[in-house]
Design a protein that fits this description.
- With about 260 residues, this protein is of the alpha/beta class.
- Helix content is about 35%, strand content about 20%.
- The chain contains nine helices and eleven strands.
- The strands form three sheets. A seven-stranded mixed beta sheet has the order 1-3-2-6-7-10-11, sandwiched between helices.
- β6, α4 and β7 form a beta-alpha-beta unit.
- It is globular and about 60 Å long.
Length: about 260
């Protein structure tokens, strides 16, 4: 059972939807102030508790009549962690329903990820852009912007390497990368991700690949909550520049399926 908090936007076909993914060991409750901040710009914001976190700690027992099964992040292994991509996909399907109701534009989808959530965002974006559309029905390729806060290159055997080699992810998505310059590990991973993308973003005036390395050793949510660093505002400006102001490039379409 995936628990989420939804913060409605302007409820129009020009509303930008944003998914916000927390880090390992965190939960959606810690992102509530940030979600309200993004909502203040009339964006529609969806924040899940990823499986094994927050209130997403139960799954239906396949045996009828048996109690629900408990999910613990501490006991999750690589295959289970990889399946967290299904959580992100479930969030997108919820937003798709809102799109088809005319309450937002799924074609302007952005994802903000913190630490492990950033890794998950990159890997899910690669999946989203790998889905090929049917002749009369667009299936994927909806996420257009990623904001990665203290992104690791790997976590428990899961890496960003394959996803960042996906041609669409490395060249067609707008990406903001934030990491504290005084944390050797975090800034090292962030700069390697940035350097791997930089040669595919050659138009510097377009500002579709944005690095922000504040002079701090803070990571993840700590970066977000440090008022002097203005990370929430940096993310909001990025969303405005890369999604709101580019609305004409991503026109709203009815995405109800051919069998609906």
């Amino acid at each position: 059972f995936l628990r989420c908090s939804y913060y409605p936007g302007a409820d129009t076909k020009t509303t930008v939807p944003i998914m916000v993914l927390h880090g390992w060991g965190s939960s959606r409750s810690e992102l509530h102030p940030f979600a309200l901040y993004l909502q203040s710009f009339k964006h529609a914001v969806l924040v899940p508790d990823l499986r094994g976190h927050g209130r997403s700690t139960q799954q239906r027992n396949p045996r009828p009549g048996e109690p629900d099964l408990e999910i613990s992040a501490e006991k999750m292994r690589r295959p289970e962690i990889e399946r967290m991509g299904l959580d992100v996909e479930a969030c997108k399907q919820f937003l798709m329903e809102k799109n088809n109701a005319g309450e937002l534009n799924i074609e302007q989808l952005g994802v903000v990820g913190f630490e492990f959530g950033a890794l998950l965002a990159v890997n899910w974006a690669a999946v989203d852009w790998s889905v090929r559309s049917l002749p009369a029905y667009k299936m994927g390729q909806d996420v257009k912007a990623l904001a990665l806060i203290s992104p690791p290159r790997k976590f428990q055997g899961i890496t960003t390497q394959k996803a960042l080699n996906q041609p669409d992810v490395r060249a067609r998505l707008s990406v903001l990368i934030v990491a504290g310059a005084d944390d050797a590990g975090a800034i090292g991973d962030a700069k390697r991700i940035y350097n791997g993308l930089e040669r595919f973003h050659t138009n510097k005036e377009e500002r579709d690949l944005v690095p922000y390395w504040p002079a701090t050793s803070l990571q993840g949510l700590q970066l977000l909550n440090a008022r002097s660093l203005n990370v929430p505002r940096t993310i909001a400006i990025f969303i405005n520049e890369r999604l709101v102001k580019k609305a004409e490039l991503f026109p709203w379409t009815d995405r109800t399926g051919p069998l609906d």
